Amino acid sequence: QVQLVESGGGLVQPGGSLRLSCAVSGNIAWANGMGWYRQAPGKQRELVAVVSSGGNTVYADSVKGRFTISRDNAKNTVYLQMNSLKPEDTAVYYCKADIFSTRYRHADYWGQGTQVTVSS
Predict the structure, then answer these.
(1) 73 alpha carbon, distance to own chain's centre
(2) How many Cβ atoms are within 10 Å of 118's Cβ, its own excluded?
(3) Contact status, residue 5 vs residue 94, Cβ threshold 8 Å
(4) Where are the beta strands (DSSP E) in 1-120?
């Protein structure tokens, strides 16, 4: 079994900052790509940022320059530093990880989601 536990969401004013964390535990050989997605009410889930096991990153255009994704491979944890938050960033944020349980067996796992609300 693999579990992803997110933390760090909450209510913040426009222009503020939050840092999300996602810790992976369980039957893990190693974690491949890890990333953050979000889903606002009435909208489809969308990619926010992803980071490869080697540290390469990809960001959605809407968050470039404001959000930073990083990971600690020793802790199997991925982070999302969110600065200059806007009301349109309001959504449930989900962590996703491609986890290898053996050398050749892997699957995608999702966290339960954490609410981020940007409002004055």
Answers:
(1) 15
(2) 19
(3) no
(4) 2-7, 10-12, 18-26, 30-39, 46-51, 57-59, 67-72, 77-82, 91-100, 106-110, 114-118
* Residue 78, CB-side half-sphere exposure with 13 Å CA sphere: 31
pLDDT one-digit tens code per residue, 25-64: 998 988 999 999 999 999 999 999 999 999 999 999 999 9
Number of neighbours of residue 82 by Cβ within 10 angstroms: 26
Check if the beta carbon of residue 115 is closer than 8 Å to that of residue 8: no
pLDDT (tens digit, 9 = 90+) per residue, 64-106?
999 999 999 999 999 999 999 999 999 999 999 999 988 888 9
User: Which two structure tokens, joined as six digits, stand for 32?
Assistant: 């491949």
| Whole-angstrom distance, CA of residue 22 vs CA of residue 99 | 13
Q: How far apart are CA 93 and CA 36, in angstroms?
A: 7
The residue to which tokens 């050749």 are assigned: 104
Give the model's pLDDT for residue 37. 98
